[in-house]
Amino acid sequence: MRELVGLLGWFMGAQGVLGIAGRVYRGEPWGVLQQWWDLPTPVYVALAVAGAALALYGETGKRGRAGAD
User: Cα 51 vs. chain centroid, distance in angstroms?
Assistant: First the structure.
């Protein structure tokens, strides 16, 4: 289950970073989410932060299991 949460975190983080970078460099967000919704920049920042937290949670689960093998 942690692997799935980590994968979701990586996706969310990437979409958040792409949205922020697109707004800064081209004035419109990049990534998949911009094709479906028109999200403001603070939402992309929140996505990047939440995605990083979820990815970190998923990655720490991998490290804990590797030592138990």
Answer: 3
pLDDT in tens, 5-48: 888 999 999 999 999 999 889 888 888 877 888 888 899 899 99
Identify whether the C-beta of residue 27 lies closer than 8 Å to the C-beta of residue 67.
Answer: no
| Upper half-sphere CA count for residue 33 (Cβ side, 13 Å) | 21
- The domain limits of the chain are 2-68
Separation CA 53–CA 69 (nearest Å): 25
- d(Cα 38, Cα 54) in Å, to the nearest integer? 23
Q: Are 6 and 59 in contact (CB under 8 A)?
A: yes
DSSP state at residue 28: S
